């Protein structure tokens, strides 16, 4: 009788954690997004330090609950126990896949289609970056991949050889500017500057989780027809896990 009561308590704890652990991760990330706490606290302390411990606790409860669910009659709570074990396994598996991806990519966060003279930012975005604690530098020439020690241009060219300027000889710069502005809006970016005279677009993309901000600048110049260069750079964090390159690829596809 005592063991049945113990099993019931374990199953209730497991069910509670099945709800509370995902909620913990969501609140940790969204709290940073909405300014309740700093992203370093949310990502470092909450997500990477406390989060895995909660997953292991849930897994342990699941294992013990499954043992008791199978050993004691009537056999109840088997699926609760299995799910309590499955969620941590999926969570740790996802963390491992992210870690593997990070190791396969250069440790950089500033991607440009022009590796010698990347487009520069102006006005509003510069002011916001200056007011951001721990903001990444925009000095492209001085950046290196801290792992390989290669200059950022070399590291980018090796990892993302397809991220290059957009050139068309059958379109005017003005027409390409309008297409680029339309594509930027379709990307869901927050357009901060749209200058049709200078053929320049500046925008910010904010992630749903944690509220990480990446800044984008697009500059269109004359060529045989028109040439578009784009730069996407994270405000904080050293490795972007390929996010900036993926953003540029998606933008180019929309053009």
Structure summarized in a few sentences:
The chain is built from seven helices and six strands; from the N terminus they run αααβααβαββββα. The protein is of the alpha+beta class. It has two domains: 103 residues; 145 residues, Alpha-D-Glucose-1,6-Bisphosphate, Chain A, domain 4.
User: What percentage of amino acids are in beta strands?
Assistant: 5-15%
Terminus-to-terminus distance: 69 Å
Architecture of the largest domain, according to CATH? Answer: 2-Layer Sandwich
What Rg do the Cα atoms give? 24 Å
- Given as residue ranges, the uncertain stretches (5+ residues, pLDDT < 50) are none
Write structural notes for this entry.
- The chain is an alpha+beta fold and 255 residues long.
- It has two domains: 2-104; 110-254, 2-Layer Sandwich (Alpha-D-Glucose-1,6-Bisphosphate, Chain A, domain 4).
- The chain is 53% helix and 15% strand.
- It has seven helices and six strands.
- A hairpin with a 3-residue loop joins strand 5 (213-222) and strand 6 (226-234).
- The model has no long low-confidence stretch (mean pLDDT 93).
What is the fold's blueprint, element by element?
Layout: H1 2-33, H2 39-71, H3 78-104, E1 110-112, H4 123-130, H5 152-159, E2 166-168, H6 173-186, E3 190-195, E4 200-206, E5 213-222, E6 226-234, H7 243-254
Antiparallel strand pairs: 1-6, 2-6, 3-4, 4-5, 5-6
Helix pairs in contact: 1-2, 1-3, 2-3
């Amino acid at each position: 009788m005592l063991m049945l009561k113990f099993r019931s308590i374990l199953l209730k704890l497991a069910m509670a954690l099945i709800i509370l652990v995902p909620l913990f991760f969501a609140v940790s990330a969204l709290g940073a997004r909405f300014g309740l706490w700093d992203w370093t606290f949310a990502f470092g302390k909450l997500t990477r330090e406390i989060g895995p411990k909660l997953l292991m606790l849930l897994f342990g409860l699941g294992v013990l609950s499954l043992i008791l669910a199978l050993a004691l009659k009537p056999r109840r709570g088997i699926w609760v126990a299995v799910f309590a074990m499955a969620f941590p396994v999926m969570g740790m598996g996802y963390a491992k896949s992210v870690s593997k991806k990070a190791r396969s990519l250069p440790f950089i966060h500033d991607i440009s289609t022009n590796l010698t003279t990347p487009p520069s930012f102006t006005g509003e975005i510069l002011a916001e970056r200056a007011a951001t604690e721990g903001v990444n530098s925009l000095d492209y020439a001085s950046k290196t991949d801290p792992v390989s020690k290669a200059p950022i241009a070399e590291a980018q060219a090796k990892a993302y050889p397809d991220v290059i300027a957009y050139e068309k000889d059958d379109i005017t710069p003005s027409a390409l500017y309008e297409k680029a502005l339309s594509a930027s809006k379709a990307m869901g970016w927050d357009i901060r500057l749209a200058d049709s005279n200078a053929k320049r677009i500046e925008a910010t993309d904010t992630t749903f989780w944690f509220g990480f901000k990446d800044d984008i600048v697009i500059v269109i110049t004359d060529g045989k027809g028109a040439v578009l260069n784009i730069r996407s750079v994270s405000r904080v964090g050293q490795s972007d896990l390929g996010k900036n390159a993926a953003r540029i690829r998606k933008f180019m596809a929309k053009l």
